[in-house]
Amino acid sequence: MSLETYFLILVVILLVMIPSLKSDMTWSLFSFLPKRVKRRTAIIGALLLSILAHACQTTSVANLKSPEKSPVPIYGYEVVHAWPHDPGAYTQGLVFHDGKLLESTGQVGHSSLRRVEIESGKVLQKLDVDAPYFAEGITLLKGKIYQLTWQHQVGFIYDAWTFEKIGEFHYQGEGWGLANDGQSLILSDGSNHIRLLDPANFQVRKTIAVVDGSAPVNELNELEYVQGEIYANIWHADRIARIDPRTGAVLGWIELTGLLARGEVSDEEAVLNGIAYDETNRRLFVTGKLWPKLFEIRLTSK
């Protein structure tokens, strides 16, 4: 093996072992090569160094750990108050309004729109929704109550004070939960998709897919808009998803297991369903289908 080859190997070893050597130093090392080194040897050496340097850089990048996403936070609860609730009310929608609750109840032949006194659970005002309709979620926007029906693809519009029916609207698919952000009606249909509707013509302005990480969150039920987030009951689950209305990402989970004691309901469909928010006093209310109690809760870190 020639002297210049030994010298070239030595330079490569030094640069691999000491990657902090700068390029100008690399060429200064080459300057010590004997004059008889052929030009092609220097070129080959430079190419070899370049390949090795790139390999080192690639390896360094590959070995860097990608940042892990923070887990979605889970919240617990404290019960602030517990009040009576009609155990015959198959709650499908709940809204806080002027110190009272607006409530939509379901089941064919038993559906209704109600105004309820919070402290006593007394029904102050009631409008029956006749068969064949199965009433679902409601929301209040600009003096009008909007109420969904389950499978008939029609919703009803009422005056918020008199409960007089003043119109109807139509939508595709099933109707489950309904809320609003002050500008759009927010509708769930039992899937992981939420639609934002224009209340002027009921055209879809936007659709978001609700996901926890990359997993779709299905069976979104009753909805409430709370401080810039969509709160959604998950059917047959004792938890509420906190959803980013821009992206559909789940921002957190509210775990409500144990809120209603065992034995207080016997029907398998007596599940958590009903969220209302008092924006002025920042009070959060929850109940369920056929539940004998309404709860005001405060969220806690879990």
Structure at a glance:
The chain is an alpha+beta fold. It has helices spanning 3-17, 23-30, 39-63; strands at 74-84, 91-97, 100-105, 112-116, 123-128, 135-141, 144-149, 154-159, 165-170, 178-180, 185-188, 193-197, 204-209, 211-212, 215-216, 220-226, 229-234, 239-243, 250-255, 272-278, 283-288, 293-301.
β-sheet strand percentage: 35-45%
Number of domains: 2
Number of helices: 3
pLDDT < 50 stretches: 10-67
Give me the side-by-side strand order of the main sheet: 16-17-18-19-1-22-21-20
* CATH superfamily grouping of the largest domain: YVTN repeat-like/Quinoprotein amine dehydrogenase
Helix content: 10-25%
Number of strands: 22
CATH topology of the largest domain: Methylamine Dehydrogenase, Chain H
What is the correct CATH architecture of the largest domain?
7 Propeller
Regarding CATH, which class of the largest domain?
A: Mainly Beta
Specify the structural class.
Answer: alpha+beta
The geometry reads as globular
Give the rounded overall mean pLDDT: 84
Task: Please give the largest β-sheet.
Answer: 8 strands, mixed
Which sequence of SSEs, written as H and E, runs from N to C?
Answer: HHHEEEEEEEEEEEEEEEEEEEEEE
Radius of gyration: 32 Å
End-to-end Cα distance: 70 Å
Protein architecture, described:
This protein is an alpha+beta fold. It folds into two domains: 3-63; 74-301, Methylamine Dehydrogenase, Chain H. It has three helices and 22 strands. It has helices at residues 3-17, 23-30, 39-63, and strands at residues 74-84, 91-97, 100-105, 112-116, 123-128, 135-141, 144-149, 154-159, 165-170, 178-180, 185-188, 193-197, 204-209, 211-212, 215-216, 220-226, 229-234, 239-243, 250-255, 272-278, 283-288, 293-301. An eight-stranded mixed beta sheet has the order 16-17-18-19-1-22-21-20, with no helix packed on it. The chain has a four-stranded antiparallel beta sheet with strand order 2-3-4-5, with no helix packed on it. Strands 6-7-8-9 form a four-stranded antiparallel beta sheet, with no helix packed on it. Helix 1 (3-17) packs parallel to helix 3 (39-63).
